[in-house]
Design brief:
The complex is a heterodimer of chains A (about 90) and B (about 650).
Chain A (H helix, E strand, L loop, with lengths): L2 H9 L3 E2 L7 E8 L5 H6 L7 E7 L6 E5 L2 E5 L1 H4 L2 E8 L3
Antiparallel strand pairs in A: 1-6, 2-3, 2-6, 3-4, 4-5
Chain B lengths: L1 E6 L5 H9 L3 E5 L6 E9 L2 E7 L14 H8 L9 E7 L3 H12 L5 E6 L2 H6 L2 E2 L1 H7 L3 E6 L7 H10 L20 H22 E2 L6 H10 L4 H42 L4 H18 L2 H17 L1 H13 L9 H6 L4 H7 L6 H10 L8 H12 L4 E2 L3 E2 H27 L10 E3 L7 H35 L3 H17 L4 H14 L2 H8 L1 H4 L6 H9 L6 H9 L10 H9 L11 H13 L4 H11 L3 H25 L1
Parallel strand pairs in B: 1-4, 1-5, 5-6, 6-8
Antiparallel strand pairs in B: 2-3, 3-4, 7-9, 10-11
Helix pairs in contact in B: 3-7, 5-7, 9-10, 9-11, 10-18, 11-18, 14-27, 15-17, 16-17, 16-25, 16-26, 17-26, 18-27, 19-20, 21-23, 23-24, 26-28, 27-28
Classes of the chains: A alpha+beta (about 90), B alpha/beta (about 650).
Chain lengths: ~90, ~650
Amino acid sequence: MNSSAQVLFLCLVINSLDSIPNGTTVLVKNVKASDLKVKLLEMGFSEGKQLRVLYRAPLGDPMAIDIGGYVLSLRNVEAAQVEVEIIENLQE
Amino acid sequence: MKIALLGNPNTGKTSVFNILTGLRQQVGNFPGVTVDRKVGKLKIDEQDCELIDFPGTYSIYPRSKDEAVVYDCLSNPDNDSYPDVVAVVVDKANLERNLLFFTQVYDLQLPTVMILNMTDLAQRQEIQYDVEGLKALFPEAIIVESNARIKSGKSRIEQAIVNATERKGHAFLENASLSEMEDLASQEKETESRFSKIRRQLSDIQVVTKKETTRSEKLDKILVHPIFGYAIFAAILMVIFQFIYAFSSIPMDLIDTAFASLSEWTSSVMPEGVFTDLVTQGIIPGIGGVVIFIPQIALLFFFIGILEETGYLARVVFIMDRIMRPLGLNGKSVVPLMSSVACAIPGVMAARTISDWKERMITIMVAPLMSCSARIPVYTLLIAIVIPEETVGGIFGLQGLVLFGLYALGTISALLVAWVLKVIIKTKEKGFLLLEMPSYKSPRWGNVGMTVLEKVRIFVWDAGRVILAISIILWVLATYGPSERRENAIAYAKETAQIENLSPEETNELIASAKLESSYIGYMGKAIEPVIEPLGYDWKIGISLITSFAAREVFVGSMATIYSVEDDGESNQTLIQKMKAAKRRDGTPVYTLAAGASLMVFFAFAMQCMSTLAIVKRETRSWKWPLIQVGYMGILAYLGAWITFILLS
């Protein structure tokens, strides 16, 4: 599969945020129900919100994202609660 | 009039608090929790006001026990901190997220002031607003603009506070009532409807002309880099410790000398007697023992303050979080533990930033295991006595290796105990990170200074009282004893001195030794001899173990007194010789390799520090945790020392 096909493939699937590579811009589709949901909502994760994955800590966890103009760090287990759709991948 | 100062973290709330109150700040605590309650007094138009600084939160609904004070105080009119006016600091650069909390507070129907603060980021982004449009959204709130960084807006904020009026019932979100703290479902619904309304309204009000996150992003590329990130963090730590070791000893020596001469002077002007002794030998040195910690605490919080102000601290948390997590700690535990290598007191105080209760308790409980600077005099003395000056493998000095080993022992045991505590301590709260990474900025020196002042004040006032009390008790125990036997011992010492024709100094040292031996502590030291014998110690070590509960380094001074040599505070050559020559009743040396190593291990583990004890009591607001700490560290010390002694002898 070449890279553009890969992007196309990714576009069609809903991913969880922790699996998104650095440099990718995504749209929030849904925040899964959990005790953490209200805290995630408060930090700005809501349906239709645009995010960009910036970078990860050396061991791949936690990750840092740009969410509406500020940078938030969150652990992969927390990011796994957020379902997103890829809209742009600058690193391809 | 009570004013609550609220706001999201990283909005400049602290700066606003500092420009409004200056040095008129007091630190207390919210009842029942371990959160500091900072109160500033100010006078606006001849009206006495009390400004209460609440912890920074993203929402009125708490994410930790500590944040619950905001909910508790604002939802309950009977609460001591229930405000007459609320002032919410709102960051211009991040209006959308900030408005969530603001609208929650606005809908409580308290007289409300919005302080629209210009942060560095907002300035760089050249964000523009239709302030009139914002005012239309919140018709019953007074909106003022400020730039806390350049200290502008002070009088505007003050005027807004006194002019904040009774509410007439306008709400941002109609029919919204405060949800119960446990009712997550309604909180979710409320949060979602608030945000969707905020987004709709905001699109007309806010104009961002320049997106500027690139500068911080570029710096982050280096500072969280897998190699450079850790290297830079290690380098920063090195610099900080170098500064602390190089510069704190100067004021510490000064304080030491100053209190010694104050004692001397006081005893020369006061009439001889028990009361004078209490003042000159108990109280003054006791206060000196508190003051002596100030340089280290101040320096450490000066550096931590800078790291925090610049935004770097959040990056340290970011790169360390994954490594610390399996141990029941989190990225925020790193700075407290590292600080404890200098001194556990600021380390325990720095654990305040950990919002998760369990992770904070674990950090506080293991911090004193990190090898602090007060252990160095003890280690160097014992190493000089029992470890030969050899080189291993041609390069490493054996003595240096042992010292390194002791540091490693402290660190490894701290991490292991943390892991054990993680398994033992049960909690309903689930730890999470969700940490904002503020953009980099140069530090506000005023804020750094206030942090230092606040921490020193907490230590001196809150922990100082306990330290003073314990040091007076220890002094009484070391100075008095069963009178008859005591007089006999002193008389015997004088006789011996006369027979052996000793110089006046040597006579005094011999008398001091006899006095300590015949004091209550002396008897306690002898009484515990059967208990400490399996570790390879005699009663002389027993006495010094008890006196060094005041502070670890006291061990050296006590040993000097017992072996009636002068404690020169430096190389202790005569003490080392005397201790090397010390023999048991059966003629074998006291300080064998096994006994010396056992003693070093004991000091690595034991909670021999009343000041740390006092600050743990202050930070956990109970005697339970410090007592558990003394207990578990004592058991660890005894077992560790016992095993060491058996293995090496």
